[in-house]
Amino acid sequence: MALLNQEQIKEIIPHRDPFLLIDEVLELEPGVRAVALKHIKEDEDWFRGHFPGHPIQPGVLMIEMLAQTGAVSVLSLPENKGKIAVFAGIDKARFKQPVMPGDTLKLEVEIIKIRGPLGIGKAVATVDGKKAVTAEIMFAISEK
């Protein structure tokens, strides 16, 4: 059961369609961790070109989904309300299996370090309990 739906997510992070890439948040510990879901639908616009006749979820968009999940956690802290989290780096990204329309990605991000406006999240995306993507995502928190 969702803790936050898309409208509630929009109250925390500034992303909007077509670039709000998480559907619901299942777990949230502000500044510590978040777990979200993305239901991969056949009509996602990027499948028109990636790849026609053999749609595969783009890896860079899965990294963005993980980043948005982590942003929900760090931007839920009272001192970060109304701010944005932007990429500062991506390390150790690994794509373990293809993700296809009809799959649901479970996106888990644990914030492992925050120092001032900079931080690192350990990110894992799974489909049916099997790892699809792992990465360390670095972020910077800034004013809009």
TrEMBL record:
The active site is at residue 50. The keyword Nucleotide-binding does not apply. Its EC number is 4.2.1.59. It is found in: Cytoplasm. GO terms for molecular function: (3R)-hydroxyacyl-[acyl-carrier-protein] dehydratase activity. It holds the Pfam family FabA. Gene3D superfamilies: Hotdog Thioesterase. Keywords: Cytoplasm, Lipid A biosynthesis, Lipid biosynthesis, Lipid metabolism, Lyase. The keyword Lipid biosynthesis applies. It catalyses: a (3R)-hydroxyacyl-[ACP] = a (2E)-enoyl-[ACP] + H2O. Its main location: cytoplasm. InterPro entries: FabA_FabZ, FabZ, HotDog_dom_sf. Belongs to the thioester dehydratase family. FabZ subfamily. PANTHER family: 3-HYDROXYACYL-[ACYL-CARRIER-PROTEIN] DEHYDRATASE (PTHR30272). Involved in unsaturated fatty acids biosynthesis. Catalyzes the dehydration of short chain beta-hydroxyacyl-ACPs and long chain saturated and unsaturated beta-hydroxyacyl-ACPs. This is 3-hydroxyacyl-[acyl-carrier-protein] dehydratase FabZ. The lineage of its organism: Bacteria, Bacillati, Bacillota, Clostridia, Eubacteriales. The gene is fabZ.
